[in-house]
Amino acid sequence: MFTGLIQGVGALRDSTPRDNGLRLHIDVGSLPFTEVELGESIAVNGACLTVVEFDTSSFAVDVSSETLRLTTLGRMTPGSALNLERAMRPSDRFGGHVVSGHVDGMGEVLQAGATNGEQVWRFAAPRELQRYIAKKGSICVDGVSLTVNEVDDAGFAVMLIPHTIAHTAFATTTVGAAVNLEVDLIARYAERLLQGTTP
Known about the structure:
Layout: E1 8-18, E2 21-27, E3 41-44, E4 47-54, E5 58-63, H1 65-70, E6 81-86, E7 105-111, E8 114-115, E9 118-124, H2 127-130, E10 138-141, E11 144-151, E12 155-159, H3 162-166, E13 178-183, H4 185-195
């Protein structure tokens, strides 16, 4: 599990085809990287991936065809900035919200940057995810835990503080960019409960 509080910004070193997916080699950048272990989980732009190789400054992960279909990871080019978060420990502070690292789909940046002195960012969301997005609720965008400020027929808006922009890949994100979205896990479970027990 993750919290959506980004621990560092890394960069894609390269990607190589592997079976039906890709192997990504990622430079850790500012991510604290001591005591890393093979098989541990790291969220890469919000997608929970397993470390299959590592050295002191980089790690490799395998990305399945399903993950490539649902995320932006297959579109990344060498040098692309990546939000990184290592899996939380039971003793960690829980500063964001419950993030599984299971990306639900891709959105698009509709507006980025300052408006009347405030950083209001707008994102388009797929229609099938919009019912899970609520004003004042939580959403994960490229691995970042954010609070929804507005919801409309196209998607949603958030307000970013300068610290978030400076310490995430949002510093290099532009209008038109594709982003990974994970909706609030609680909303999904609530919907399932309301549907009853029929499979």
